[in-house]
Amino acid sequence: MRDLIHIHDAEGVRTLSLNRPDARNALSLALIQQLEAAVQAVAATADVRVLVLRGQGKSFCAGMDLRGVIDDPVQMGSMLHGLARTSLALRHLRVPVIACVRGAAIGGGCGLMATADLAVTHAEAKLGYPEVDLGICPAVVAPILMRRVGAGRARAMLLTGGVVDGTEAHRIGLATHLAAEAELEAATQALATRLVSGGAHAIATTKAWLAELETELDSATMQRAADLSARIIQGPEAQERLRARFAQPPRPGT
Amino acid sequence: MKPGDTQTWGPVRLQWHDGPLRGAATITLADPDRRNVLGPPMFDGLEASILQLEACTAAARFNPMHEPPPADAVRVVLLQGAGRAFCAGFDLGLLAQDPDPAQPLLALFLKRLAGCARRLRALPATSVACVQGAALAGGCALAMACDLAVATHDAQLGYPVHAIGLSPAVSGTVLDARAGSGAMRALFMGGETVDGARAHTLGLVQGLVPDTAALTVHAQALACTLLAKGPRALAVTRRWLQTLDQAIDPDRVAAALGASMSTVGSAEGASLLRRVWTERTRS
Prior knowledge:
The structure holds two protein chains of two kinds. Chain A is α/β, with parallel strands linked by helices. Chain A contains ten helices and nine strands. Chain A is 49% helix and 15% strand. Chain B has a seven-stranded mixed sheet, sandwiched between helices. Chain B has a three-stranded mixed sheet with strand order 6-8-9. In chain B, helix 1 packs parallel to helix 3 (104-122), helix 3 (104-122) packs parallel to helix 4 (138-145) and helix 3 packs antiparallel against helix 9. The chains are: A alpha/beta, B alpha/beta. The interface between A and B is medium-sized, with 36 and 30 residues.
């Protein structure tokens, strides 16, 4: 099996790199399955103190890889449910999760960014949820984003679609840290090192308590979200818009 | 009504757009000399225009979770105030003259406000408030009831209603869903009013523009953006957000209205109201 998630350990920091740089790390079913397994492995490993999520290449993650699966509702459902389970698993890890977001985090990719406890990005990054532009409902990310930036801002982002830059994402709290693009990895490393030096038990307890306060982020809600999203993708509106998008040549450099 | 039509109920005008804004409608509160205050004629007009929109959005005929909105439905609603203010809140002059110490008129205003806010949210159309000048108390509650809001720098938002012995709790469910309990406490407990830039920082409004001319341009551009979305995806996303934020959950809405209603009809409230009104008319 191709290594779609690259795993690296150093001094208590485990780094998971989405490893499909030629596809801007788009979330295919195989990638989501490997990511879910890798996140579960973190939960079972005692010496990991901090988890860093990043993308190989120029982009963090271009979102769900819908090309090729729009005719396959079963596979699409598996992808959405897999992403919903992975998000919950990240939220319930006992170690803090940092997303190191370079270039772009779109749709499901921006969902991973919002799920991480901390997110470091740079001013030029393109971040957001253009799902409604494509006739898709960003249902899975909605409960996570609402908790992160507040329901009003989540409403504005999810209903108006499009993307925002790193500065705006930092202003509204989607990104917690902003660094120069050239210093993104160093800033992430510095943050990870600081977290490793914190009391592991205190951090784990705090994270568990924060998860407990997020009452609406339970697995029933996330399952419902994935079902809802899967149903809307299969409708004629999304099918028509997705086909029109896929008929266009890929945009270079985005 | 059909696209291109305009209908007027007293001080409220409803325009169903045609052309590039086809699919959008604008409600205008048009009593600019009185800063669009909420009294019986304004409530009558608002309720009539919302009722008309419930028909135009096909609210009763389709379920956004199961089917797309009809092609001719209104999918975006803009709410604006004519003149220098969005809406300065309840008509205090009328309330101060209410001879009954139980303040039945104030109780009625609160119920009608809660009804308008809930019905605006419940429409299967994305709503955008365009706020210039005052959006105070009931006016702020109307703006916050919309999904999105755009404001000018000189906008003034807030709930300075403790001065008349009233609790702003009625607006709490949408405000909590919008800006979180921290901002809600600042506005409700502190009673502070905030300008457009501060409202933008707090997350009360999502767009900030320099002046009224830019407000219209920005709001219409936003309407075009929303109209370009997948209509079904947008309707479902909006409904899902409502399920998650519980802002129009009937029990929570009833509890919020109940909290505000419990402050109506005290001797303290009636006398505060008369004092505020006397001071205002004297100055």
